[in-house]
Amino acid sequence: MTTQALPREPRQDRSRATRRRLLEAAVDCLASEGWAGTTVAVVAERAGVSRGAAQHHFRTREELVTAAVEYGSEVRVAQMRERLDVPSGQRPSTLDVVTMLGEMYTTPLFRAALQLWVAASSDEQLRARVLPLEARVGREAHRLTIEALGADESVPGVRETVQATLDLVRGLGLADLLTDDSARRTRLLRQWATTLDAALSR
Amino acid sequence: MTTQALPREPRQDRSRATRRRLLEAAVDCLASEGWAGTTVAVVAERAGVSRGAAQHHFRTREELVTAAVEYGSEVRVAQMRERLDVPSGQRPSTLDVVTMLGEMYTTPLFRAALQLWVAASSDEQLRARVLPLEARVGREAHRLTIEALGADESVPGVRETVQATLDLVRGLGLADLLTDDSARRTRLLRQWATTLDAALSR
């Protein structure tokens, strides 16, 4: 063991990078192995981090999964902003918007979120953690979709139609869970874009 | 113990009734306790059946859950037929159809199915069992919705719009998992019925 103190910043950076790798591995693990298969040991191995180092960050499975829930919802909000928050002069087409939404709800991140929702439906403590995070993701998805579509919520029915678009892509995410539903989804969203344009009178 | 033989029919009836009680309890248990919480012992207690009697019908948790999957999909198809398969002279309004669909995707039966889909997404054997059953439920839901709406699938876009309606209500089922979403759902489906009428040119 060296007595020379390591420079402070790099160590903090390494710690942050390790934590982030563990959280990314936890999200992937939730998506592919499900709730029961996501343990600190499994996630540590997937992340290429020693079990000791993993337990330095997350002592229990509960701590790890809670942090993964928070991390996953932050990443989902950030991805939505990155893809939908464009200057109004470069507004995407309705088809582009619904295609982007369709993609966002069929990622491993969505599958991981789905595992959490279902686990939270029979676990009060988890539900209390998941609900405020989901509310935030939902509000941001709605706001960004309204802006990307250039939709006017003061027109009666517009708010509900945009909400229906988000519920639709959530349903499409579910339809993609057990089989590759991409061909049907592409046809369906093409038609949805036409319906949406008519409904929003664009 | 009596040596007198019991009449044959009643015993078979009792056995069928017990089996049915166990399957109903298994569906309820999946919906409220989740996949991991659904064991033969828990389901037997919920059904008011002795553990011995339960194990006479279902030796393992696997057998019970598989039978519950099949039973649940039969009941879902039967419920859809009962509610949507009406004589063409008494065709329901578009709002009635989407309201009925919205109700069907927020029942304990839907929640139980959701638990199965999510469990099947990380379990190949279960997936192989769930897929053909889900395909059957999906085909029947589509056929009944087309008929109830009096929609003409030969018109371009109609097939996709009806499919989107079913994906939308599936998404609404998911939105109802952690909170009571009924007020928002009612507004949304009222608007969707208007959009659907315009899209189907009814």
UniProtKB/TrEMBL annotation, chains A, B:
Keyword line: DNA-binding
Any one Gene Ontology molecular-function term assigned to this protein's record: DNA-binding transcription factor activity
Pfam families xref list: TetR_N
Superkingdom per UniProt: Bacteria
UniProt cross-references to InterPro entries, sorted A to Z: Homeodomain-like_sf (IPR009057), HTH-type_TetR-like_transc_reg (IPR050109), HTH_TetR (IPR001647)
Residues annotated to bind DNA: 39-58
Coiled-coil zones: none
Domain annotation HTH tetR-type: ranges: 16-76
Protein name, entry field: TetR/AcrR family transcriptional regulator
Native species: Actinomadura soli
